[in-house]
Specification:
This protein has one domain. The chain is built from 3 helices and 2 strands, in the order E-H-E-H-H. With 65 residues, the protein is an alpha+beta fold. The longest helix is centred in the C-terminal third of the chain and has 12 residues. A two-stranded parallel ribbon has the order 1-2. The mean pLDDT is 90. Strand 1, helix 1 and strand 2 form a beta-alpha-beta unit.
Length: 65
């Protein structure tokens, strides 16, 4: 199953290792550490969250006929 990780810009995630996510997800396809957005990232930075979703799901979408 393809997976994506986008870390919020909180001190607790500043040193979160990508290797831990790679052990948890066999097919990690998107990793992002944006410099904006906190605990309520979708509310604080909706355009950024939408961009992250497009970056992950875009390549997974089948080509239009």
């Amino acid at each position: 199953m393809p997976a994506a990780v986008t870390l919020s810009n909180e001190p607790a995630y500043a040193t979160y290792p990508r290797s831990l996510a790679e052990r948890a997800f066999a097919d990690l396809r998107h990793w992002s550490t944006p410099h904006r957005g906190g605990h309520f990232m979708a509310h604080e930075e909706p355009a950024q969250v939408a961009s992250e979703l497009r970056a992950f799901f875009g390549p997974l979408s089948p080509a239009a006929p």
